[in-house]
Amino acid sequence: MFESLKSSLKHFKKEVKSTFTDSPHEPGDLPAKDTNEEISSEIISLTRKASSLAQGKAIFDQKSLSTPLQELELSLLSSDVELGVAEAIIDAVRQDLVGTSRKITTGVENAVEEALKKALLSVLDESTFDLESFLSSNPSPTIIIFVGVNGVGKTTTLAKFAHFLDSIGYSTVLANGDTYRAGANEQLTVHSEALGKKLITHQQGGDPTAVLYDAVEYAKAHDIDVVLCDTAGRLHTNKDLMSQLEKINRVVSPDLTIFIDEAIAGQDAVNRARHFNDIAPIDGVILTKIDADTSGGAAISITHAIKKPILFLGSGQKYEDLEPFDSLAFVDNLLD
Ligand SMILES: Nc1nc2c(ncn2[C@@H]2O[C@H](COP(=O)(O)OP(=O)(O)OP(=O)(O)O)[C@@H](O)[C@H]2O)c(=O)[nH]1
Ligand SMILES: [Mg+2]
Predict the structure, then answer these.
(1) Structure pTM?
(2) Residue 285 pLDDT
């Protein structure tokens, strides 16, 4: 999982370590320089390095860090990390390290690891959300709608979410706002029966807002805590379906709108999140299919791009395969 990102970070740690702890070149190995100025600057830098190495220390200077940082930026980009996010990570690592010194024995690796950890957390934690405290303070029923493009796992995730809410003591009713796709009612019926949940549906072709309205009425009448509303998959470029979503958002006025996309969609997932956020403001994101071979770029980029947190990661087909997103555990796993 996230192998591409992991290997980018590992490579960076290795490069920095060898840049700052290997002995300086022999004079004969000096890279060719064009001007006297370049030669003297190289000699000064090597002399400094030799002297700090002699004292058992490595000094992180801007010049020596620049090549490993450039390489890191390129490999983040090739792992589908968005340019602005890759730059934010590089800047944070540079700021953290440049001008500091560490003991060669253990300090260099730790310093690089800590700088990467802080930089990654700074983009992942730009927005956070405590679902449980929100649910406990929001007047019932809390209305949650699941939105996203076709086939990304909205319906499956809604069912997993109902299972998760059960585990923390919240009752749910399911509502099928996907009146567009043939077979959508049947799919959600299978989940509602497996989970023992009431499901509100209308006929295919009906108005999704009417289904959601009925589900809210049902929840009020039966003292249900949360209404989970599925919606049809829609491409962000489909004007009709996007204006339907805008109407659902306006009429139903959900307490939470959760954007679902596949972690494997990388940069596309980030772009789609922006489009959906413009039409029906997103409160949080769930990335699915992290069990597939994903670079991890979407997970790193999406919060920085839309300033909304990742709430959960979907990792398989079973109801239990939905983990609350924990940025620290996520970063520790990347740097492991
Ligand atoms: N491996 C894996 N498969 C998943 C995951 N989540 C959903 N799926 C599968 O993805 C496929 C599509 O899931 P759905 O839940 O129907 O997707 P959807 O977004 O509701 O699709 P539409 O309603 O057609 O837009 C199904 O085969 C799911 O079993 C996941 O986390 N991991
Ligand atoms: Mg669906």
Answers:
(1) 0.90
(2) 98
Shortest-distance Cα residue to atom 10 of ligand 1: 153
Q: What is the pLDDT, as a whole number, of residue 1?
A: 79
Show the 3-state SS of the chain.
CCHHHHHHHHHHHHHHHHHHHCCCCCHHHCCCCCCHHHHHHHHHHHHHHHHHHHCCEEECCHHHHHHHHHHHHHHHHHCCCCHHHHHHHHHHHHHHHCCCEEECCCHHHHHHHHHHHHHHHHHHCCCCCCHHHHHHHCCCCEEEEEECCCCCCHHHHHHHHHHHHHHCCCCEEEEEECCCCCCHHHHHHHHHHHHCCCEECCCCCCCHHHHHHHHHHHHHHCCCCEEEEEECCCCCCCHHHHHHHHHHHHHHCCCEEEEEEEHHHCHHHHHHHHHHHHHCCCCEEEEECCCCCCCCHHHHHHHHHHCCCEEEEECCCCCCCEEECCHHHHHHHHHC
Closest atom of ligand 1 to CA, residue 288 = 31
For ligand 1, pick from 156, 181, 189 the residue to mutate: most ligand atoms within 8 Å of CB: 156
pLDDT number for residue 295: 84
Domain with residues 131-335, CATH architecture: 3-Layer(aba) Sandwich (3.40)
Q: 61-100 pLDDT, tens per residue?
A: 888 889 999 999 999 999 999 999 999 999 999 999 988 8
Ranges in the chain annotated CATH 3.40.50.300: 131-335
Residue 256 alpha carbon to ligand 2 centre in Å: 18
Q: Which residues of the chain have pLDDT under 50?
A: 26-29
Residue range(s) of every CATH 1.20.120.140 domain in the chain = 3-124
Class of domain 3-124: mainly alpha
Cα 154 to ligand 1 centroid, rounded to whole Å: 6
